[in-house]
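Consider the tokenized backbone below.
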């Protein structure tokens, strides 16, 4: 069970709830892309769904399979092929219906059809049948020891739902767990509430097994993609628990009075996945050369740095695990480039590049790849590092022609057969015959001692045939509010109108506006064309990219039909443009809502953030710029110029992190992140924007300040300014009424451009402060391959940008009557 998932359903040791209003706020690493755990193997999905969806079995604190919705462990026939499972009676779904064998049979059948782990075992299942209302029987074609672990596993889970909601997509998320879904606002929060009809088991809590208690009234999972923001939110008291924290934050959390670190030791293992299907590494000697050259100590240190967070350890399982053995480990961590060079010579290596596919989604993957590249080149390899985003890596690793190694990682799993890398059917295609025979014997053996001996043979094969390469072991860091006890995390548990009367030459202005509107239309059509072409130029099938690597050909074909991708390109283009001009920007693949509605839901924080930031920038920049120009060459002028250059040079994300740390965490003056909870009123939401607005205001004030100063310097020496002074006007009346008015045109121009850039370009700040605005939306859409949202955002932002420029031009008339159109 994932770590954060144990928080609420493993809260048994809390004597008094230690959070405000009995609501637990949990910061997670991102949005769960589905709330159906059958359909995902992602940690973040397991973390949230185990609170409201349950399985027949789970794991206890020692990773033993334990009953959950089943009465007890199953009765297994003497031949090991038949599993008879008695169901607990009185179990109620969140919709009020009672669970019976029909629900369980239908759910398990869907699991074998839809879930990746269920599909893997489907061919071994002869039948799943209801014996009576409270008994289910699973008959296998042969003994299969990992079955119970598969039924207990938290991702690609064999979740139990009411038969009535089942289908390829659930008609409703209805489970039996201790909490039920109250509200889900994607990218903002998932709010769960106590399920009053929950029937807990009678046993004492034992990790995720036993009686699950409901000590929190509500749990709110908040996606916070930036790890530093999760840290600051935890330390400032905004979050009660935070998952996936960077190792370098350990000392700060440990020294804090507000929070304490939770170290998951051990958590998982980084892996060099090897291509056995195609390319350079189909040669055993080349694989052995790769194995010999890698410096595991250097790679792990580069990746994790702190000794608290990694161990250079050869066996596939850590100390204390049943499966740990030393078979084959003498071949681990050789760090012998000379030996590797000899093996390359024996293989007749001629300099073909070794292609390493990696991503910076997990920075430690990239750091390990960099160190490996240097060692491999020293051994004589030519190395090509392909660094791509995680979604692209997911696509490319499905094509063996595109890589030799890809870098990944896995938690330590309680059942080795759950690790797909051992199987010939995995992406690696490791099909060495002796290994395959060992794996088949391992999965069908029923005696534990025999299985342990067979796994030792399997591990030996990994080293001797270089099936894949384990780099080491690493720990993970979480954090919790100080004083919370009983949390038992472990590796997998856990626009304003213009004033018409002030405008002169109305006919000319009207004509100008019409001309600009026509120009705007041309720009919008150009943007529409670019948005249309981008999707068509993306490598691969757009439908497959949108659905992700797990999509079936049938699902991709259905999406192509729904999006009209089967039509001729000209028809697609005309349809796309026509719909966009009518305001129909399509339907989001992820949200399953019109893109317009999705964008409107995210517009408020972005617009207010841009507006407040602009106001702050003007308050800082215009007075200082005017005074610096008036006192040209003075110490204040020089200080203003230097400060402006500094503000423009420092990245906004760094400024944001510093403000988070000191103004939010240390002083507690402002919220560290977010946009308020689901019940937050207007002023609370605006309060969350103060800190990011200050950051953006300071950063953007630099350009406005320099333009204001330069424009004022241009006019302060003009004849009309000297004339005004000679008439006896006060100095500040001369400066503000005469000089500033004539210097206003370039200042207004840069203000308009700044506002447009703030609306369209506050991505980094929204990300750092976890603000659910349009910038954050488009980043999430890119990562999810949600092309309709990407297209829609591009169109809306471009249109808004052109419209703001038009308003800026019209504002010239308000400040300078000499302007003519």
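A designed sequence for it:
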């Amino acid at each position: 069970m994932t770590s954060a998932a144990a928080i609420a359903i493993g809260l048994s040791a809390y004597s008094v709830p230690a959070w405000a209003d009995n609501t637990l706020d949990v910061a997670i690493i991102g949005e769960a892309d589905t709330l159906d755990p059958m359909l995902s193997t992602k940690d973040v999905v397991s973390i949230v769904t185990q609170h409201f969806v349950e399985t027949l079995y789970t794991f206890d604190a020692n990773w033993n399979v334990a009953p959950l919705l089943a009465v007890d462990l199953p009765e297994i026939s003497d031949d090991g092929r038949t599993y008879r499972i008695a169901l607990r009676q009185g179990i109620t779904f969140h919709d009020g219906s009672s669970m019976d064998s029909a629900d369980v049979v239908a759910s398990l059948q869907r699991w074998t059809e839809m879930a990746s782990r269920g599909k893997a075992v489907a061919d071994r299942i002869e039948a799943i049948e209801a014996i009576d209302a409270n008994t289910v029987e699973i008959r296998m074609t042969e003994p299969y020891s990992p079955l119970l672990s598969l039924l207990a596993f938290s991702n690609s889970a064999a979740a139990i739902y009411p038969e009535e909601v089942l289908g390829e997509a659930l008609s409703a998320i209805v489970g039996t767990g201790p909490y039920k879904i109250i509200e889900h606002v994607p990218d903002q929060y998932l709010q769960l509430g106590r399920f009053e009809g929950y029937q807990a088991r009678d046993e004492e809590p034992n990790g995720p097994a036993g009686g699950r208690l409901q000590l929190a009234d509500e749990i709110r999972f908040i996606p916070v993609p930036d790890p530093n923001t999760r840290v600051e939110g935890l330390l400032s008291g905004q979050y009660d628990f935070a998952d996936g924290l960077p190792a370098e934050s350990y000392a700060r959390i440990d020294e804090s009075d507000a929070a304490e670190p939770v170290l998951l030791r051990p958590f998982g293992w980084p892996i060099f996945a090897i291509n056995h299907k195609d390319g350079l590494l189909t040669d055993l000697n080349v694989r052995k050369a790769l194995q010999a050259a890698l410096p595991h100590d250097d790679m792990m240190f580069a990746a994790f740095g702190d000794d608290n967070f990694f161990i250079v350890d050869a066996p596939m399982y850590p100390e204390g695990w049943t499966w740990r053995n030393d078979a084959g480990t003498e071949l681990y961590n050789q760090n012998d480039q000379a030996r590797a060079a000899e093996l390359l010579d024996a293989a007749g290596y001629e300099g073909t590049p070794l292609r390493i596919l990696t991503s910076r989604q997990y920075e430690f993957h990239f750091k390990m790849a960099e160190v490996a590249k240097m060692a491999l080149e020293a051994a004589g390899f030519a190395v090509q590092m392909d660094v791509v985003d995680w979604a692209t890596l997911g696509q490319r690793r499905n094509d063996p022609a595109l890589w030799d190694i890809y870098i990944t990682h896995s938690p330590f799993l309680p059942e080795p057969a759950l690790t797909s890398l051992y199987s010939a059917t995995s992406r690696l295609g490791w099909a060495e015959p002796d290994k395959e025979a060992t794996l088949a014997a391992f999965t069908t053996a029923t005696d534990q001692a025999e299985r342990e001996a067979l796994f030792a043979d399997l591990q030996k094969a990994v080293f001797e045939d270089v099936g894949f390469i384990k780099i080491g072991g690493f720990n993970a860091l979480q954090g919790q509010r100080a004083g919370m006890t009983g949390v038992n995390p472990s590796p997998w548990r856990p626009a304003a109108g213009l004033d018409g009367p002030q405008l002169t030459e109305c006919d000319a202005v009207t004509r100008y506006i019409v001309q600009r509107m026509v120009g705007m239309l041309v720009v919008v059509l150009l943007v529409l064309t670019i948005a249309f072409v981008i999707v068509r130029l993306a490598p691969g099938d757009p439908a497959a990219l949108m659905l992700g690597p797990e999509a079936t050909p049938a699902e991709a074909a259905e999406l192509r039909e729904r999006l009209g991708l089967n039509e001729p390109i000209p028809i697609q283009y005309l349809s796309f443009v026509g719909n966009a001009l009518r305001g129909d920007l399509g339907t989001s693949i992820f949200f399953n809502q019109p893109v317009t509605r999705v964008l409107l839901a995210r517009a408020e924080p972005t617009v207010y953030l841009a507006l407040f930031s602009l106001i702050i920038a003007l308050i800082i920049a215009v007075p200082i710029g005017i005074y610096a120009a008036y006192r040209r060459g003075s110490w204040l002028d020089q200080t203003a110029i230097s400060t402006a250059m500094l503000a423009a040079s420092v990245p906004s994300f760094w400024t944001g992190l510093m403000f988070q740390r000191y103004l939010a965490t240390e002083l507690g003056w402002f919220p560290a992140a977010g946009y308020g909870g689901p019940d937050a009123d207007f002023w609370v939401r605006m309060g969350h924007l103060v800190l990011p607005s200050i950051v953006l205001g300071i950063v953007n004030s630099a350009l406005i300040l320099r333009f204001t100063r330069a424009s004022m310097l241009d006019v302060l020496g003009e004849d009309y300014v000297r004339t005004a002074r000679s008439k006896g006007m006060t100095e500040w009346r001369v400066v503000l009424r005469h000089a500033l008015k004539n210097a206003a045109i370039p200042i207004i121009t840069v203000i308009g451009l700044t506002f447009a850039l703030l609306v369209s370009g506050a991505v980094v700040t929204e990300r750092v402060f976890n603000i659910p605005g349009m910038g954050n939306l488009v980043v999430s859409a890119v990562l999810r391959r949600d092309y309709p949202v990407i297209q829609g955002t591009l169109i809306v932002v471009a249109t808004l940008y052109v419209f703001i420029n038009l308003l800026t031009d019209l504002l010239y008339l308000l400040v300078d009557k000499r302007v003519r159109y």
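Residues 215 and 266 are 28 Å apart (CA to CA).
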